[in-house]
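As promised in the previous annual report, we have extended the structural survey to additional targets. Below is the entry for Replication initiation protein.
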Amino acid sequence: MTEPLVLPKGAAALIARAAAPGFGAWHRSIVRLGGCTNPIHLVGGSTLVDTRTGEALHAYVPQEHGGRLLTVCGNRRATVCPTCARVYRADTYQLIRAGLVGGKQVPEAVDGHPRVFATFTAPGFGPVHTRRERNGRVRACRPRRTGEKCPHGLPSGCPARHREDDPALGEPLCPRCYDYAGAVLWQAHAGTLWHRFALELRRELARRAGLPRTALGEVLRLSYAKVAEYQRRGLIHFHAVIRLDGPDGPDTTPPGWATTGLLTDAVRTAVGLVHLVAPGREIVGPRVLRFGPQVDVRPISALGAGERLTSAAVAGYIAKYATKGAEAAGAVDARIRRSADLATLPVRDHTLRMIGTCWWLGGLEPFEPLGLRRWAHMLGYGGHFSSKSRRYSTTLTALRQARAEYRAEKQRAALGLDDRPVISVGQWRYAGRGYSPEGTLVAASVREGGGGHGA
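The corresponding structure token record, generated without further manual editing, is:
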């Protein structure tokens, strides 16, 4: 017997829509979103006005979707919206690359300035299962000494050679030995540690130049861009491009004494000096928070030489992690509203313990300013995933504005108004988000076809 044909949800509605008037305009309004998974609905209208005469040249009021204009959600996280994340990743790549080789109103001479690619890790809070490789061979996770056990009777080592997709990676060897309170508090203060590092690096550069800290800005400017990446153990580390400019930023040359070697040494020294005392000593004991001892600092080469990093490789690496969040460590991508929700979270044991620790500490008075319950789904980290100093390069806002202006120019040309000075005057308000069932099918087909909004 032939199996009955089962149509996907919304197929009947799509067939009916295709037979109705205005299908072409409705379909184009979704296709232009490039497959955005959760578009924003706006109601209102706009008018193109001649700036010299005040004449209204063209009025637009959306007719599709019940009089609503659908626009992309703009979410940076690939697990939430792959389409918008792809655009965000491309913009981040251009932003980072411009600060390394020029472009986007950054002079090309910037590729001769001292710059390094640095990685700052979290300290250890207890041994976890890890994957170790040497000379192309996978080694034992943690060599075990015969008979050696932790205070809770579990083996202190692991002889396994873990696969890359082994779910045990990042899990503590002994959950009772693991310092979850320390891990969560470090996570909550990671952004502050970075801020203090940037200040300490400036002090270190001034010391090495024999200058007062207040005089450093007269001869040198420190610029950087960074991104946060989650490790399998649920803790972040920072990847950063750090560059030295003259006093007025990338348009000016740094002094001769400001070399890549000096910057490398200064970064290593400064990161070791940064620390802060965590709150709640009376509850969880004393905690002095620092970056981990594994600090990697490497020079960046515009063209590449040997094992030195190229500008393109660094930009691609940072852009890759700009669209990821705590879900990369097995967490969830939505805020947790109630303690009752903890019991049903689809996460591994280690991640659940970190979330539970955030919830526990977040309910205690000394830790209230940290907002740990608000950021429990991020395992305590509430800082920016990507950020940069003011003069590093262009901005994401400028890149988005350039795309908007390009689209506006195409619209004016299509209306025959490209030779007139016009401005768009409009009023829009939020009216919801998402697709109808038939719209969901069209958006999915656009994503499968590799479509993307932008330009």
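DSSP finds ten helices and 14 strands in the chain. Residues 11-77+397-448 form one domain. These points will be discussed at the next consortium meeting with the crystallography subgroup.
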